[in-house]
């Protein structure tokens, strides 16, 4: 097979996977498949397709899928999610940044972390790469939440007399733990299967 034909097949495979994972993200974002309400914020399973795309196609795909995730999150702020809607009413620009930036960085860095570890241990890379997605997303999201809205009456109402550390622990709570568990369990085997399928196609 010629180099040109190989390159074109790689592009088709990448575009197809990007389209499929983007469609899955959009489907999950606007159906009960993607979010599970637990406390003031919702637990999301959308990091699974982002992590899968990041680990199988690299940084650009990870960032792109993170962007798709972020855009759907921002759309949720227009009456679909009470927490996001309130933040939007306080400051739309900060809310937009908080929805987009953490997700793009999460997808990009997930791919970077996976690549670094995969050079020596591919199986471990799947697990650590998948684990990094919810951890990075929560870290960046909560960091910007505190930076942008930490002094607002809305967030102070949640915080009460709690210290910053106690507030973060209570706010993330079960949501963060479940996101880590589900992403780490589901994403690695899916990414592994896709990698094997891509190799066979090539």
Summarize the structure.
This protein has about 200 residues and is mostly helical.
Give a verbal description of the structure:
With 202 residues, the chain is mostly helical. It has one domain (3-196): Orthogonal Bundle (Arp2/3 complex 21 kDa subunit ARPC3), CATH 1.10.1760. It is built from eight helices and two strands, in the order H-E-E-H-H-H-H-H-H-H. Strands 1-2 form a two-stranded antiparallel sheet. Helix 2 (47-57) packs antiparallel against helix 3 and helix 3 runs antiparallel to helix 5. The longest helix is centred in the last third of the chain and has 38 residues, at 164-201. The chain is globular. The chain starts with a helix and ends with a helix.
Percent strand? under 5%
CATH architecture: Orthogonal Bundle
Q: Give the beta-strand count.
A: 2
Global outline: globular
- Outline the biggest β-sheet: 2 strands, antiparallel
CATH topology: Arp2/3 complex 21 kDa subunit ARPC3
Within the largest sheet, what's the order of strands?
1-2
What gyration radius follows from the Cα positions, in whole Å?
18 Å
| Secondary structure tally, helices | 8
The run of helices and strands is HEEHHHHHHH
Total count of domains: 1
Q: Name the helicity range.
A: over 70%
* Strand-pairing-aware structural class: mainly alpha
Residue-averaged pLDDT, rounded?
88
CATH class: Mainly Alpha
Query: What is the rounded distance between the termini?
Result: 10 Å
Task: Show unreliable segments.
Answer: none
């Amino acid at each position: 097979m010629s180099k040109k034909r190989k390159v074109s097949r790689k592009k088709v495979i990448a575009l197809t996977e990007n389209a499929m994972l983007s469609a899955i993200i959009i489907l999950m974002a606007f159906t009960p498949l993607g979010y599970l309400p637990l406390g003031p914020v919702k637990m999301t399973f959308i990091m699974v397709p982002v992590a899968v795309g990041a680990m199988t196609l690299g940084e650009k795909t990870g960032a792109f899928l993170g962007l798709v995730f972020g855009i759907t999150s921002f759309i949720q702020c227009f009456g679909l999610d009470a927490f996001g809607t309130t933040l939007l009413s306080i400051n739309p620009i900060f809310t937009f940044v908080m929805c987009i930036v953490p997700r793009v960085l999460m997808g990009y860095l997930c791919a970077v972390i996976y690549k670094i570890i995969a050079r020596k241990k591919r199986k471990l890379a799947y697990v650590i790469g998948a684990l990094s997605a919810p951890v990075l997303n929560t870290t960046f999201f909560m960091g910007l939440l505190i930076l942008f809205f930490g002094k607002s009456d809305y967030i102070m109402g949640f915080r009460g007399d709690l210290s910053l550390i106690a507030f973060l622990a209570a706010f993330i709570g079960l949501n963060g733990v479940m996101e880590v568990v589900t992403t780490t369990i589901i994403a690695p085997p899916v990414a592994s299967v896709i990698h094997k399928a891509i190799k066979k196609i090539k």
